[in-house]
Amino acid sequence: MMFLDCIKSLFSYPPRAYIGSYKSTKRHLLTSSRIRTIYTRSCAMQQHLESKEYTKFHKFLKSVLRNIPNNYPRSYHLKEFGWNDFNKIGSIHSHCHVGNIQLASYQHWPSLDEGNDLSFFGRSLTLNFLPAYHDTDFVSRPVRYDSYITFLGRTAIYVGTDLRDAESEALYLSSLMQCIAVDVNKRTPVRIGSEIIKKYVDDKTTMKTPPQRHQFLPLQPGNGDVFRWTTTVQWSDVDYNRHVNQTPYLRFMYDAGSSAAVAGFLRSFHHELIHYKLKTYTVEYMQEIRLGKEVEVVCWEMDDNPGTIHFEVQVGDHTVTRSHLIFDVQPSAKL
Question: Which of 66, 78, 106, 158 could be 151's S-S partner, Cβ–Cβ 3.0 to 4.6 Å?
Fold first, then answer.
């Protein structure tokens, strides 16, 4: 009992209160405690680039996730959002949802992973924020992220995730992420076993064809019509796959877009982007970015599409991501 009490005390710290998948029993509580330690370990390990260190962490991750109850859809619970998840006007940082959606999606990987060298890299992601999201006070509000497979192909998987109120079941946010099965050592796509595909297509998947991904237009305006913002990839931006995690990309875009708005480069925005209600975030990942790389974020707004900010993330001469943010262009009354 003393050991169990020590584990319970972990959830009293204010920065985050991750509860993991399910609650109530000792087994689930122990599992949740182990999930909580995944990212503290990854931060300590991300400076080790040797493949043996990655393999060690990958095995640890799989062993934790295999203990999650086999319910469907699989839920990732938050007792409450941490204090650092909120920005200076009391809204949740949008990039926090990207990280939590990843955690919810990870719960499917053990049943799909046939070998220690297989991982799933994000290819595209769309977040849709419902009106109820912006009308809700999330301070001390328990929520959960319901995750489910919507399509499973030979090399790709589409995972849908819904952010819901843990008590009222109200839907706040929906997302769809495409991931590619990749050999982490060779950095090449690999096939998912036919038996696994058959299992999910027969029992779990409602879609027989993959969802249509958004087609981004390449950079079009002249150099005078775009805003360029630069940063350098830091240790905290890199995950256990040794590349920039999905979460920092959205943070980069908010920083670049806010700088552009305040500098007067955008027609519909004149304040930091946190003052506007985000409706949709869509991104396509084209290449990886590694530690220490200088990143340039290019953003612009088209005359015929107010309220939408387009982004390209570039490293040297290469475009590594394309994305857009769609906002309600009326600023918050909190200004």
Answer: 158
